[in-house]
Amino acid sequence: MLTLRNALRLILLLLSVYGFWVFLQPVTISGIINIGNIVGMGFSVLLAVVVLFSSRVSRFLSARMKQRRGKIVIVSAAALLGCGVLWCGALSLLMATAMSTQPESPTTVIVLGCRVNGDTPSASLLRRVDTAADYLLANPSVQVIVSGGQGAHEWISEAEAMKRVLVQRGISEDRILMEDRSTSTLENLTFSREMLAENGLSTSVIVVSEGYHMYRALSFAERVGLDAEGLAAPTVPWILPTSWVREWFGITLDTLQR
Fold first, then answer.
1. Beta carbons within 10 angstroms of residue 168's beta carbon
2. What is the pTM for the complete model shown?
């Protein structure tokens, strides 16, 4: 007979299997492995172990709770876990809000760089450039800064790769400014701000990146003195959970380093 407890255990077990599969997708499809899917897969495995061995886990915790040191450790771990859940929930709300906003008025666009494979833009970079191109075609008076240096295994800079795609999409070269020194989001926006000043452009800008990254990008923009709005490029579903969790760690690290 299926009791309520067993039904709950079955649901949690199925969720853990599904979660593991979701975070495994970037590895099997594109060989992407980072803190996002490592944590996601690890949490899924931990949940499955707790569900499968719930009786043993319960007995272990009950025994530890009878000891003063064990009780302190368990209560502290539970409090830390609760704070972590609240923190990630708050970050998710901020990230979702940032990715859903749309620019209110046309102004200079800054496209943040992403990986280039040899001289071919990655799928993520193409999504950013396509989003920027659509906006630029709809607003022919707007200029654009393509921002990204040349990394390892990249034959050309990310800025050059983006410029080539924009030109192919029908954007005139005289509308495109290249910032090809940066190696991070903060440098993207710092060096782009310098280019704005050099070319007599306003510090009111539109930042193009993928939605999950928009909150952090706009935070960096504010830090370097830009009045920025976001224009989010789409993210394919199979990479979104991994990128979302990874972004939690990125935002947390940036917050601690301030």
1. 10
2. 0.90
